[in-house]
Amino acid sequence: MRRLFRARYAAPAALVGCVGLVGLLAFSPNAAPAGVAVTTTLPALTTTATTATPAGQPTQSVSGALNYAAPSNQTGLFYAQLPQAFIAPGEALFAANCASCHGPAALGTNLGPNLQGLGAGTVDFWVSTGRMPLANSSVQATRKPPRFNRLQTLEIAAWVQSLTPGQGTQVPIVNTNDADLEAGNTLFTLNCAACHTITGAGDALAGGAYAPTLHLATLPQIVEAIRSGPGNMPRFSEGNITNTEARDIAAYVSGVIQHPVNRGGFGLGGIGPVGEGFVGLLIGVGALMLVCFWIGDRT
Amino acid sequence: MSDDAPRLEGPLPPAALDDPHLQPYAKHPERAQAVAAVAMVVGFVGFIGFGVAYWVGDNPQWEAVTLGGGLLALGFGVTAWGKYLMPQGPFEEERHEFHSTEAEREAMTAAVTERGGMVLKRRRLLGGLFALGSTAMGIVLLFPLIRSLGPKPGTTLFETNWRKNSQLVTLDGRPVRVDDLAVGGVLTVFPKGHTGSSQDQVILIRLAQLGPLDPPLVIHPPGRTDWGVQGYVAYSKMCTHLGCPVGLYQEQTQQLVCPCHQSIFNVQSGCIPEFGPAPRPLPQLPLTADSAGNLRSQNGFNQAVGPGFWERP
Amino acid sequence: MIDETIDRSLRWLDDRLGIAKGGRTFLDKIFPDHWSFMLGEIALYSFVVLLATGVFLSLYYIPSAHEVVYHGSYVPLRGQRVSEAYSSSVSLSFDVKSGLLMRQAHHWAADIFLGSIAVHMARVFFTGAFRKPREFNWIVGVSMLILGIVNGFLGYSLPDDLVSGTGIRIAYSIIESIPLVGSYLGTFLFGGNYPGNGVIIPRFYILHVLIVPLLLIGLLAAHLGLLVKQKHTQFKGKGKTEHNVVGTPMFPTFIAKTTGFLFMTSAVIFLLGGLAQINPIWQFGQYEPYQISYAVQPDWYMGWLDGALRIMPSWEWVGWGHTIPLEVFLPAVIFPGLIFNIFIVWPFIESRHTKDLAYHNLLDRPRDRPLRTAAGVAMLTLLFMVFFASSTDVLANFFQVPLVGVLWFFRIAVIVAPVIAAVVAYKICNEMRAAEGIGKRKRPQIVTRSSTGEYSTTEAEPRPGDGVDELDAIPVPTYIDLVPPELATGAGVRRVMR
Hints:
Chain A is mostly helical and 299 residues long. Chain A is built from ten helices and six strands; from the N terminus they run αβββααααβααββααα. Chain A has two domains: 58 residues; 200 residues, Cytochrome c-like domain (Cytochrome Bc1 Complex, Chain D, domain 2, Orthogonal Bundle), CATH 1.10.760.
C-alpha cells in the first residue's frame, strides 16, 4: 500500500493539486470579485407596511433603520420622497465628508464633479455601495464597505436633492412580486450583458475602467444604476427602459444573476471557457497524467 | 525453466511457475490483493449507488459521485491487479526487419513498371483519355457538393432594409421618439417591420440634449454633423471586424467597445476605430426627426455594413 | 472444463477465420511501460466516452433552427421563443434523467480529448518518435488533431446559445474574408447572407455526429493499425535495442492495466461531468445576432485562434475595387494553415536537416536533441502566448490592469517569448548533457560515524525501479507449468491443471 503513495508522486501531485485548488478557489462563485472587498450590506429599503402609513412616507422604527411602506396591493417600481427632516442632518454630513471634494454647495471642485441635479437616487447609489467617499479619484471607484448607515445615506441624498428639487434620479422602492423574469432575462441580455457579461460577472472596459460584478447589488442600487448611469454606464431613462422593465431587470439580477442555477456543479466563476479550460486541462488532464505516472515506469 | 519439463510443440519450452518473470511485482501480494479487492467492492457499491441516485433523485452531483467513484474504484482495482499481481516480466519480442528484401522490392517495381509500362506505353491514347475523363468527372462532381449548398451572395451583402425615412423602432416594435433617451442613453433599434434582423441592427446613442432649434452637435468627420439629430447619433451595430454586435457603450469616454475582440470606436468622430483589430469605422446611419417627433433615417447606409469581404470596394 | 471449452471455441473460430497464429502473436504483443506512452490512451479513452455520451445526446437533441416556445423547468426562459436546438438542449439539461450529467461529461471529455492529444503530441515530438518509419502515423495524428478541433467547435455550437452563436458569426466572417471565393462559400454554407436560412444548425449536426466522427474513426484505426504493425518505440535502457521491444504482454497484463485506465479516464470525465459545471447554456439564453455577452471566449482549443484575432493589427488591404481583410484572413486562415502545415511536414524537415535516413525505434531524450527541443519549445511558447491572448479582457479585469496594456503585452510577447524560450531551452539541454551522472537515479549516501568519530559514507541499497535489480527480458512464455514441480508425475507426460 505504501508503494502506491511513493514520494515520486508527491511533487507532481502536489503541484497539480495546488494549481487545481487555486483555480477552483479563484473561480469559486463565493469568492469576492477580484480587487473588491467583501461588503456587509446594510438592510435595503423594505416594503413592509406598518400601520396607517401613507404611501411613500418613511416610518422610524425602533432600531433606527428605515422602513418604507409600499402602496398596498401594488407591485412594481416606485420612487420615494425623502422626508424634509433628513435635509438638515444631511447637510451636516455632507459638509463633514463630501464638501472637501464636491464643494460646500455640491457644485463641484477640480477634485469632484457637480452633484446638483443628479438626484437623491444617484447619491444613494454612490454612497450605499461605498464608492463614495472616494480617496483616489484617478482610478475607477470600487465598491467597498459603506461609510454611512442607511439613515445617514438617505440624509445626505435628501440634502443634495433639496438643492434642485424634482430633478434627477429618485430613490426607488422595488417590489419584485409578480415580476416577469422572462422579460427581465430578455432585457438584461439586450441591454446589460454587453458590459456586465451574461452571468453578471463584470469585465474590463477601455481606458482602465471596468464594468463591476452584479453579484452584490441590492434592488434599489440596480434601479438607481440603470436610471443614473454611474461612471461609464449609459443612462437608461423611462423612455428607454420603463419602470416596469427596470423592475423586471432588477428582479432578474437579484433573483437569477445573484442566485444562478448551477445545476451542473461548481460554477467556476461564471466566466465561461476560461475557467473551464483551466479546470479541464489542469485537473482533468493533470489527474489522468498522475494516473499514468502511477501505472507506468519511469525508466 | 524446469529441466525435466517435457519438450512440447511450440516455439519455447514451458516456463516454470516459479520463474521470477512470472512473479507478481508486489512484495506482499496478499496485501495488494486485499487493496484491489476493497477497491473493486467500492466500485460495485458505487455503481449500485448510481442506480439508486438515478431513480431517487434529480441530482447530477450524486449521479457523478456514484458513477465516477464506482468507475474510479473499479478501474483502480483492475489496474492494481494488472500492475502488482500479474507476471511482472519484463518480456520482450523481436522487431522483424521492417522492409521487404531487395529482391522483393525489385520484383514489385518490375511488376509496376514492366507490366504496366507494357500496356501504358503502347496505349498512350487510351491512358490519356481515361485520365481526362476521370479528371472531368472529379471536377463536375464537386459542383453538386459545393454549389448546391446555397444561394450566391449577389447584392445581399451590400443591402439593408434601411431606406429613406425608415422609422426607427425598438426590438418590440415600439417607435423611438426624440424625447425617449436621456443624454448618455443607448438603445438597439431596427427599421420598422424588420425587428431582430441581423443586417439591420443599429445602435442609437444620445450624446447631447438638444432641441429642434438648437445648433446641432458637431460630429467629426466633416460633413457628418447633419447625420445626427438633436444630439442623437446612430451607427450600424455590426462590428466591421467580425460582425459581433457592438453593444458596449462607455458613456464617459464616449467609446463603443466591441466585446468580442475589444476594438474601440470613437462615437464623437464617426466611430473611427481607435484601437484593436477593426479596420473601418462603423457605418453611420443618417438620422432625422419627423413632425410627430419620431426618429427616422434620412437614407440607408452609404456602404456595406459588417466585416470586409472581397467584393467590397 | 473451462479450458476445454475455450480450446474447442478457438478451434471452431480458427477453422473459419484462421485466427490462431495471428491471434497468439497479438496476445504476445509487447507494450513498453513508460508512463509517457499512456498519454495517447487518455485521448483514446476520452474518445470512447465521447462516442458513448454522444450517442445518448443524439437521441434528445433536435437539430433545427425552427422557433418554438420554451415550456420546460427553467423559469426565466419560460415563454421565450427559442430555436428547437436550444430548447432541446435546455430540456436535456433539466428534464431528462441524467441528461445534464451526460451533456457535461461529453463536453468535459472533448476538452480532455484535445488536451491529451496536445500532451501526447508533445511527447512524440520531443522524443523523436515521428522519425522513420513513423512519419505516416505522425501525419495521421496531426489530422486527428485538426478534425478533433473542428468537431469540438461544431459540437459546442449545436445548442445555439448566445456564446456559441457568437462563435458561429465569427466563423462566417472568417469564411467571408477569404479572397475571391469567401462571400460565395459563406452564403453557400449558411444558405444566404448571415444568419442564412437556418440550415447551418442541421449541417453542423450531421458534420458533428456523422461525417467527422467517421473520418476520425477511420484515422484512429489507421493510427492504431500502424502502431500494431510498426510496434511501439521505447527509451534506451537495459536490454533495449533497436531490434526488440521490452515491456508487458498484451494478455493479460496490458489488457488489465488499460481496461483499468479506461475506467479511470471515464471516472475523471464523469466526476467533472457532475461536479464542475461547464457550458451552462440556460444562463446564456438563445442566440440572437443583435445580442452579445462580454467575457466571451471560445473553448480552450480554439483559444489560440481567438487570441490571434485579438492581437492582430487592423491591416485591411483595399484596392482596385476589392478588399482583403488581412486582419481576419491572416490570423484566422493563414496562421493556422501555416502552423498545421509545419506540423505535418516536420518529420521531413528534420530528416532533411539532419540527413538522417535510418530507422529509429529507440527514443531520444529531449536533451540529446537541443535544436529540435528548442524548436518545439518555441512553437509551444508561441501557441501558449496566442492562447493566453484570447483572455485579454478577463486578464485585464482579474489583474486590474488596462485593457490596451494587456493587448500590447501580448503583441510583443508573441514575438519575443518564443525566441527567449528557445534560447533558454537550448542552453538547458546542453547543460544537462554536460552534467555528470545525468539521467541516472542517484543513490543516497549513508553517512555513518565510527566510534572514534570518523565519518564514512556508503552507498544506499538500490531501490526497486532503479534498474539495478531488473531481470533480463525473456520472450513471452506460451506454455506455463501451472503444476508445481513436486506434484509432477513422471517425465514425458504433459502436466496440466485439472
